[in-house]
């Protein structure tokens, strides 16, 4: 196993998933890649009072801060950690990134942010388990 992919959204379950992913990576001598997915806009940009470019810039800045915080919570020596911001439907974007040949598994929290969206769209972790070409570890 060369690389473990961990999906984070800033929620407590996703930070637990990051911790578990780090533990597994250390045991196997794997690299850890933490990803955050910026979903497609559900509302037109003018609802936000911003241009599309401004909304995308804000989403990217938020994702960068979130990933930086997640990495800081690990504070593991000897662990190679990289981060990546993905775009699109969360489960699909994570599965696509996880399909890379060097990814051995995907780790995700059982529940993240977005309870209302989950009612309508289903859980990202549940969807990922069904579409991922790689093993998915769901951390409760």
Describe the structure.
- By secondary structure, the protein is an alpha/beta fold.
- The protein has a single domain, classed as HUPs (Rossmann fold, 3-Layer(aba) Sandwich), CATH 3.40.50.620.
- 49% of the residues lie in helices and 22% in strands.
- It has 6 helices and 5 strands, in the order βαβααβαβααβ.
- It has helices at residues 12-28, 45-48, 52-74, 90-98, 115-121, 124-131, and strands at 3-7, 31-38, 81-87, 103-109, 136-139.
- It is globular, with a radius of gyration of 15 Å.
How would the blueprint of this fold be written?
Blueprint: E1 3-7, H1 12-28, E2 31-38, H2 45-48, H3 52-74, E3 81-87, H4 90-98, E4 103-109, H5 115-121, H6 124-131, E5 136-139
Parallel strand pairs: 1-2, 1-4, 2-3, 4-5
Short description:
The protein has 140 residues and is α/β, with parallel strands linked by helices. Helix content is 49%, strand content 22%. The chain has one domain (9-139): Rossmann fold.
Radius of gyration: 15 Å
Query: What is the SS-derived class?
Result: alpha/beta
Extended strand count: 5
Helix content: 40-55%
The residue ranges in which pLDDT falls below 50 over 5 or more consecutive positions are none
Separate helix tally? 6
Envelope shape: globular
Q: Do you know the CATH topology?
A: Rossmann fold
Order of helices and strands: EHEHHEHEHHE
Q: What is the residue-mean pLDDT, rounded to a whole number?
A: 89
Write down the CATH class. Answer: Alpha Beta
Output the keywords.
140 residues; Rossmann fold; five-stranded parallel β-sheet; globular
